[in-house]
Amino acid sequence: MTMLTVNTVTRRFGGFKAVDGVSLALAAGEILGIAGTNGAGKSTLFAAIAGQQPADEGEIRFDGHDITRLAPYRRARLGLVRTFQVPREFKSLTVHDNLMAAAPNPVGERLLNAFVPTRHLRAHEARLAEKADGILQFLNLARVRDVQAGGLSGGQKKLVELGRVLMLDPRCILLDEPFAGVNPVLIGEICDRVRQLNAQGIAFIVIEHHLQALKSLSGRMVVMDRGRILAEGDPQAVLDDPRVQEAYMGGVA
Amino acid sequence: MTWIDLANLLVNGLMEGLVVALPALAMTLVMGVNRFPQAATGDFMTLGAYAAVGCQVLLAMPLWAAALAGAVATAAVSALSYQLIFRKLAGRPMVASMLAAIGLGFLLRSLIAFFAGHDQRTFDMPLVRAWNWGGLRVLPTDLVIAGIALACLLAVFVLLYRTSFGRQLRAVADSADLARASGIRARGLMLALWLLVGAIAAIGGVLLGMKAVVMPEMGWEFLIPAFAAMVLGGIGSPVGAVLGALLLCVAQELSVPLFGPSYKLVLSFAVLALVLLLRPAGIMGRIQLVR
Amino acid sequence: MVAYLSAIGIVALIYALLALGLNLQFGLTRLVNFGVVAFFALGAYTSGLLSLQGVPLAACFVAAALLSALLALPIGLLSLRLRDDYLAIVTLGFSEAVRITIQQEEWLTKGVQGLPGLPRLFAGWGSPAADLAIFALLAAVVALVVAGTVRLARSPFGRLLRAIGDDEAALSALGKDPAWFKVQIFMLGAALFGLAGAFYAHFITFITPDQFIPLVTFYVWMGLVMGGTGSVRGALLGSVLLMVFLEGSRFVKDWVPGVSEVGMASLRLAAVGLALILVTLYRPHGIFGGRQP
Predict the structure, then answer these.
(1) Residue C23 CA from chain centroid, whole number
(2) Which of A185, C90, C111, C139 is the most buried (most CB within 10 A)?
(3) What value does the mean pLDDT of chain A take?
(4) Domain that includes residue A116, residue range
(5) Where are chain B's structural domains?
């Protein structure tokens, strides 16, 4: 069953096409890897899918909904979430509060309830806190639960971002370079977590430059070059593709 | 209201617009390159005007020389303020630069008021009678002022679009990283830019002082209109700044029969708010710089 | 002497109220409001005009806060679409537009002549009892606002505000639309500014449009930034520092020969300008210090 379809999406900056007529599909429960040289348009594609930037042409559908013109926060509410290439943790909040701030909490976040919190709300808050702690445990972040997120290492910040999106019980997570600037041991840990979450039914699209890690993680892979899809299919086959190898000769592999 | 009245308002608006175009241009250049609204631009205008008045009164310089001296002095202060203040705040959140600019404006304005007093001053200019073409009244001095403003604008445009300095400036405005990577020496470029905007603002101040009076609040009063003109024309677009200034000042003049002269600034604010609501990119700008 | 000290205390508390409001808007949520004085003016004139019609003071104060909050709604909505620096200039422009409108609409506000003879709080008590009573009342109000702010900052709503201040786009990517929250906090801050305006009006009893110039906004900013933004302590400390500065400059005039009242005002403005520059340059934690209540 297809969860996400991207249909000939194009994104322009002036005359320059950062994403040029890209189409792809993500099946439910799949892990799709996206690789490509610098400037290939991978992050721009993510931005179009998640909503930070508009698609100038084409259509994006998630779970049967047309999300092409939808605001980012609405896409997230449908279950489509993302992390960022450079981590965007809430610097002044603790790790725990980062997750709590992410948790859907429409009633708790009413202004009036700030001054007169009912017992019902306190109970709800306690439940969210428990869920957050569980996720922190899962991500091995329990030790830094009450540390200000701005002071963490790069790898830890990426885990916090992952923890945050997990509070939304997402269906599909877009991971933007989860391994960039992260030490090898942590890369392995992140891969394990992703596989575990995938086993629970969450689909992933992962942009990465660490081709070995990406290959081991992905069920299917796509390589982009200059805004277009160069090759698609089985990870090893894609990496062996002569066109892909040629594209990487001049780029970062 | 007759056609002649309308024509008078239009002509007045266009002439004032040419003068307001100068601080608007100065603001848009800094906005495009340094990415923050230079809130002391108005007070640079005041500084230029007072420096020129000072030269005329104390040193008995002819008006043109005094104006030039004023421009040089203000250019120096502007470059100094970049070197000492804004360069250091470049990596910080924009609030910092804005607060510092407001502070700089206060400092300049208050020192001027302290040393030169609050009394209105005027430039020593020949008394002339307005020309009258069947009801269309134009002061020759206003015409000269508009002409000087136009000449100044043209000079800046030649600088921006026909010299390597201008090319580099526009490259940096498009992308600071890109410009740095291609070997453009940002530091010297920035200083040159701030010298330029200081001079432009100063000339605007002198022209304003020639048109009306010189007083400590004169430039500050034009901050919002200059900003509105910049936004209307499109942030970062020099042509836009001029167009925006012309349009805004014409609109201001046309509003006078309806709301009276005191509400001009309110109109500027209304234009500002409307443009940002409806078409943030302005006439010629790019939307990325606004949201 | 008591009258003098309580006067200083009252003004300090009024600034504290303004700083607390700005702390909600900028300290927590990073909304750059350069138009604080607009709502201060609105509160003062609303309360003043109503009181001259015989409306009991308590109702005037409430009206002042409510009207300011109401006017903050369109500005708040405008702010949703604006980046920091644009919001700053737009709010600055708004405050000047408000001042000019107050000045021009003489039929309502008596224009430049202002509104004299506003009823004072605790009018029948006589000095110094009245002054002390005003001080006590203000202190109680400020204490209440402090408690409320701390409560707010620690609540889920406050957590959200800090997240917005940290990274709005990231919050949006997590399924929450910052818009309505920003508007609400803008209105809440404005209500505090309006309340402060009402206290001001009924303390000095004579208000004119040129008491409500942008300088007042930047006094509050200066105080907040010096004290450390994002914390209630900072807002209170900043107000004290501000009062020390403002009152201190009054005494400097007695030491420096040959400086007129007007000259003193210019020097004070120069000092504020210099302080703003120096604080932003050399006290970065003043501007983005840790945002805990």
Answers:
(1) 10
(2) C90
(3) 92
(4) 90-151
(5) 3-126+134-289
pLDDT of residue C288: 43
Residue A251 has pLDDT above 60, yes or no: no
Cβ-Cβ contacts under 8 Å, B83 against chain C: none
- How would you list the strands of the sheet with A203-207, edge to edge? A80-82, A172-176, A203-207, A31-36, A220-225, A228-233
The per-residue pLDDT for C293 is: 33
B106 Cβ neighbours under 8 A, 6+ residues apart: C215, C218, C269, C270, C272, C273, C276
* pLDDT one-digit tens code per residue, C183-201: 999 999 999 999 999 999 9
Q: Which fold has domain B3-126+134-289?
A: ABC transporter involved in vitamin B12 uptake, BtuC (1.10.3470)
Q: Please enumerate residues of C whose Cβ is less than 8 A from a Cβ of B.
A: 26, 32, 34, 78, 81-86, 88-90, 92-94, 96-97, 100-101, 103-104, 215, 218, 221, 225, 262-263, 266-270, 272-277, 279-281, 284, 287-288
The burial of A143, by beta-carbon neighbours within 10 Å (0-12 exposed, 13-18 middle, 19 or more buried), is given as: exposed
Phi-psi category of residue B127: left, alpha or beta, with phi > 0 → left and psi -120 to 50 → alpha:
beta
Q: What is the structure's pLDDT at B97?
A: 92
> Are C159 and A93 in contact (CB < 8 Å)?
yes
Within-domain flag for A56: yes
pLDDT of residue C46: 96
A195 within domain boundaries: yes
- From chain C, the residues in CB contact with B92 under 8 A are 280, 284, 287
- CA–CA gap between residue B188 and residue B169 (Å, rounded): 11
Query: Is the pLDDT confidence value at C177 over 70?
Result: yes
Per-residue pLDDT tens digits for A184-198: 888 999 999 999 999
- Provide the 8-state DSSP code for C120: P
Q: pLDDT digit string (tens) for B18-61?
A: 999 999 999 999 988 888 899 999 999 999 999 999 999 899 88
pLDDT band at B286 (very low <50, low <70, confident <90, very high): low
Is C81's Cβ below 8 Å from some Cβ in A?
A: no
What DSSP letter does each residue of A106-122 carry, written as one string?
TTTT-HHHHHS--HHHH
CA gap A249, B3 in Å, rounded: 71
Kindly state whether A104 is in contact with chain C, defined as any CB-CB distance less than 8 angstroms. yes
pLDDT for B178: 60
Please tell me the total count of domains within chain A. Answer: 2
Q: Does residue A157 sit within a domain?
A: no
The verdict on residue A105 lying in a domain is yes
Question: What span, in angstroms and rounded, lies between the C-alpha atoms of A123 and A106?
Answer: 14
Sort B64 into a burial class: Cβ within 10 Å, 0-12 / 13-18 / 19+: exposed
Q: How far is CA A220 from CA A25, A31, A62, A229, C166, in A?
A: 11, 7, 19, 14, 36
Q: Are residues A187 and A236 in the same domain?
A: yes
Residues C202, C188, C221, B215: is their CA dihedral positive or negative?
Answer: negative
Residue C292 pLDDT grade (very low, low, confident, very high; cuts 50, 70, 90): very low
A residues 4-23 lying closer than 8 A (beta carbon) to C: none
Contact C45, C206 (CB under 8 A): no
Dump pLDDT digits (tens) for B131-155.
Answer: 888 888 888 888 889 999 999 999 9
Q: Do A77 and C157 touch (CB under 8 A)?
A: no
Q: What is the mean pLDDT of residues B219-234?
A: 93
ipTM score of complex = 0.92
